[in-house]
Write a structure and sequence with these properties.
Strand content: 15-25%
Structural class: mainly beta
Number of domains: 1
Largest sheet: 4 strands, antiparallel
Order of helices and strands: EEEEHEEEEEE
Helix content: under 10%
Length: 129
Amino acid sequence: MGMCVCMGATMMCSFGMAPSTLVVPPVNRTLTGPPAANIMDNKPMMNVPPFGMCTSPANPNVASKIPVPPPGVIKPQPCTPTLVAPWVPGAPTVLIGNMPALNNTSKLMCMWGGVIQILVPGQVQTQVP
């Protein structure tokens, strides 16, 4: 059983260089005190702020800065989360705002190949199946 994720949760991207904090608008969604998140809290900049610098070679901003010789040297560029799908899998048996609740085992995929995961759920009292 996972922990319910809420406003203030700490996240990390596999290609990011710094953690970020989940932002959940307080729209009638509380299980624990801070607003609880659902799988649709995946909007870049609104819910998911940048992770410092990006090191993904699939990111065009990063790829354009890789020098030809020597190959493989990556120069990190500012992170711009590019998210096209909801968090997966979520907790489908618990609905928050008519969508599955977000639990701490869910992951979010960036279009540039990064995997965003929850490091700290923002609360430690409420579990979701």
